[in-house]
Every structure is written in C-alpha cells, then in structure tokens.
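On to our target:
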Amino acid sequence: MNSINVTELKSLTTVIAELSDHVLTITLDRPERMNSFTDAMRTEFRALWRFADLTDDVHVVVLRASGDRAFSTGMDVKEGTYLADNPFSRRDPGVDLSPKQNGCWKPLICAVHGLAAGGALYWLNEADLIIASDDAQFFDPHVSYGLVAALEPIGLAHRIPIGEVLRMALLGLDERMSVERAHQIGFVSEIVPRERLWERAATLAARIAAKPPAAIQGTVRAIWESRDVGRTHALATALPYTMVGNPIGKAQIDRSQVPTRSYEVR
C-alpha cells in the first residue's frame, strides 16, 4: 500500500482515519494490544503519510489512540516486525511511522494518554505539538529486555535535554517519566484532563487548519530542516522558504478572518 484515497480511509484495519474540515484524525485502534504497531500498521501509516502529503484538503493531522490504558507501547512483541535477512537491505522499521521521514510536512498534533513507550516515540519525536492527559507516562523498555536503546532515544535527543533521554533509556522499565516532568522539559506542551484530551486536540487542529496551509506547511518544514544544520547555515537558507511560501500563503488568506489580537493565554 503505497498510497490511498479518501474512500480507502474506511478500509484501514489498524487505525481509524477520518478527514473533516481539513483535519485528518488518525486513531490507533488496537486497544487489546495496547495500540502496539505491527507490519500492517507500518504499511498503513506509510500510505497515510503519503496521502496527507499529497492531499491539499489535509491541513493538519491529529494522532490519538483508542482504549483506556495506552497511547502505544511500541512494537507488538508477540507479532514482531519484518527485517530483511540481508543486513545491507535492512531499514529501521519505525521509519514508516514517522511523518517527516516520509516527506510529510503537514503539522502533526499528538494527543497522548496512558502509557507511551518505546516505539511510540517514533510518532512523538516528529510531532509538532504534543498534548497529554494527566495520566500519561513515558518510558523506553529496551534495555530491560537486553536490547540496545538507540533509534528512539536518538530521535528524542533532538527535542529534549540529553540527560533526560539517557535517564529514560538507561532505567528502562524501572522508571517512568511523569506527564508533569514531560511538561517541565518541554516535551509536552499542555496537560489536560483525560476527558478533555480529544476535544482539546481538535480545537488546536481547527485553529491551525484555518490558517493559510502553504504558510503552515512551509513553517513546519523550515523549522524542522533547520535542526539538521548549524545556526548560521540555517539562517542563511531560511529566506528561500519565505520566497516560495509567502506568495502562495498570502493568496490563500482571508484578511477578514485574521484576529486583531490574541484571544487565549496558556
């Protein structure tokens, strides 16, 4: 499954995907397995990122999860995941879950509840906004099972202090990062009561989706790609993003809908 269309959104088996008012809402839907990912889910996410990238009607993506216990506990250890026998043909299986590594620069809002562990970080590491309910907890169990914690923590190290990354990676199952700590270090931008989590994610998505999509998409791409180079290089190459995006974004804007002042303080 390399790509899908709007009608095929209903045929997905591991997630529920709905497109409404320019917001693509994806709900992880394997609650009986703590929303762990499988080869089937990898395939569906690869197609979803392609769909989101190529579909102009998609302005924002919201990722959330069904069930009471977990956002996701990473890879389904019972089913496992495919790796090529030839070591030179192997690729990180989590790449399929990652929007930016799949060339999708539409903003991603993750709404996290319960447990978020291990491979769940593939989504969180590339999210543009993470909001969480007051019961959310974060951890990486790899070393407790004798596995090197490398791929997920390296991605995490690009968004939170390295000391926090090392603590999570080295303590494994012995410790979980609380949602309060995740908020203190800037990993989570907002904590809300569990019953308000999906509503709040939808509100944020609607506000972003109402803005000119070219300006939003260009902003996401410019900021993320700047992190791959030094500050001076990033600033020197920032202007082309505005030269490409501004004429399109200005043509998309309705000046009557631009607020004259900020209406919310967080």
In short: The longest helix spans residues 39-54.
